[in-house]
Design goal:
Helix content is 22%, strand content 31%. It has a 4-stranded mixed sheet with strand order 2-1-4-3, with no helix packed on it. The chain has 2 helices and 4 strands. By secondary structure, it is of the alpha+beta class. It starts with 10 loop residues before the first strand and ends with a helix. It has helices at 56-59, 70-84; strands at 11-17, 23-28, 34-38, 41-48.
Length: 85
């Protein structure tokens, strides 16, 4: 087997879904700055906006998740465009 083909920073990481507050412990090489304790053990923490716990395809429900204000920005541009016409 070839040497030095696998990443050196592979470890278990907690992925935290901001919209549903679900947590998943998965092996990953993602860089993190936060840590959290799960079951008395400390893990690196990586926050995600959407996961299988909150995605409409997996949950079967529709839910608008707008953390960046994109819908508001679109509505403002649409209203400004309508005023010009």
């Amino acid at each position: 087997m070839k040497k030095d083909t696998h990443p050196k920073n592979f470890r278990e990481v907690v992925f935290f879904d901001n919209s549903s507050e679900a947590q998943f412990i998965i092996g990953s090489t993602v860089e993190t700055t936060e840590t959290t304790k799960v079951g008395g053990k400390e893990y690196p923490l990586y926050r995600v906006e959407i996961s299988s716990a909150s995605h409409p395809f997996f949950t079967g429900t529709e839910k608008v998740i707008d953390t960046a204000g994109r819908v508001d920005k679109f509505n403002k541009r649409r209203a400004a465009s309508a005023k010009k016409k």
